[in-house]
Specification:
Distance between the termini: 25 Å
Helix content: 25-40%
Number of domains: 1
Order of helices and strands: EHEHEHEEHHEEEH
CATH topology: Ribosomal Protein L30, Chain: A
Radius of gyration: 15 Å
Structural class: alpha/beta
Strand order of the largest sheet: 6-2-1-3-8-7
Number of strands: 8
Strand content: 15-25%
Length: 152
């Protein structure tokens, strides 16, 4: 089972209600939101359906730890700290990252949507084109780790 990070790049303008519903189901309701997904056929079908609005790739453990430390939140918008994780019997941030990479889902008290900032330095290509045609959208493999480092 592969674990991917899915990032929504484009906003709401011109998107059908059906695609908006699909993005809500994928836990990326707004622009610059990210979510952890697996390569389950039903989930990948939803990702392909909204592929003109998102980018995704395999996330590394280091990038996942950085994402959890800086953008991970608990209910009430509390930051994800080692003390808060120990209070919820989850261990350390590294242990949570290992659990996410093994199971493919975020453990319960942690919010499944990660709110990111626009990338520092901006996007290098068009956000309305696919990667294969000189844009930012679509599957980017391990290059998602460089993008997430710019967006944390």
């Amino acid at each position: 089972m592969k674990v991917f990070l899915l990032i929504r790049i484009r906003g709401r303008i011109g998107i059908s209600p059906e695609n908006l519903d699909t993005m809500d189901r994928l836990n990326i309701p707004k622009k610059h939101n990210a979510a952890i997904i697996t390569d389950d056929p039903s989930i990948m079908g939803m990702v392909n359906k909204v592929g003109f609005y998102v980018t995704w790739g395999e996330i590394s453990k280091d990038a996942l730890v950085a994402l959890l430390q800086k953008r991970g939140r608990l209910p009430g918008e509390a930051k994800l700290t080692d003390d808060a994780l120990k209070a919820n019997n989850l261990g350390s941030i590294e242990a949570v990252a290992d659990k996410i990479l093994a199971e493919g889902k975020v453990p319960e008290p942690i919010k499944r949507t990660f709110r990111l900032t626009p990338p520092s330095g901006g996007f290098k290509h068009h956000i309305t084109r696919h990667i294969k045609s000189g844009g930012e959208l679509g599957y980017r493999g391990a290059d998602i780790n460089a993008l997430i480092a710019k967006m944390i």
